[in-house]
Design goal:
Blueprint: H1 2-11, H2 17-31, H3 34-37, H4 39-57, H5 61-106
Helix pairs in contact: 2-4, 2-5, 4-5
Domain DUF4398: 17-91
Region (Disordered): 50-69
Organism: Rubrivivax gelatinosus (strain NBRC 100245 / IL144)
Length: 110
């Protein structure tokens, strides 16, 4: 009977908090456009989160915790890269607009 109680206790062990933190980081990365703008980093984050879920299902909470932490960091990197790419694109658009304005101002008036 003691073994059954121990098994029941293991089955009801909550996931490590790192799992929720990693899920939230993944959601923020997706919202920032990381799947399109930082695909490699996003794929790494998703892969590690998938592996963390498998480790949790296999009753390996420490492995799940470590993988979730890695997934969180990868997702944060993906978010940062996506935001950086958006800023770079916005800067290019402003430079293009400024160039067009300069060209327009340089034209002789009629």
């Amino acid at each position: 009977m003691g073994v059954l109680l121990a098994l029941a206790a293991c089955a009801s062990t909550p996931p490590p908090p790192e799992m929720a933190l990693a899920d939230a980081a993944l959601a923020r990365a997706v919202a920032a456009g990381a799947p399109e703008l930082a695909a490699v980093e996003m794929a790494a984050a998703r892969d590690k989160m998938s592996r963390a879920n498998r480790a949790l299902a296999a009753d390996e909470p420490e492995g799940a915790r470590a993988l979730a932490q890695q997934a969180q960091l990868d997702a944060q990197l993906a978010q940062a890269r996506a935001e950086s790419e958006r800023a770079r694109r916005a800067e290019l658009a402003v430079q293009d607009a400024a160039g067009a304005l300069r060209d327009e101002m340089a034209r002789p008036s009629r």
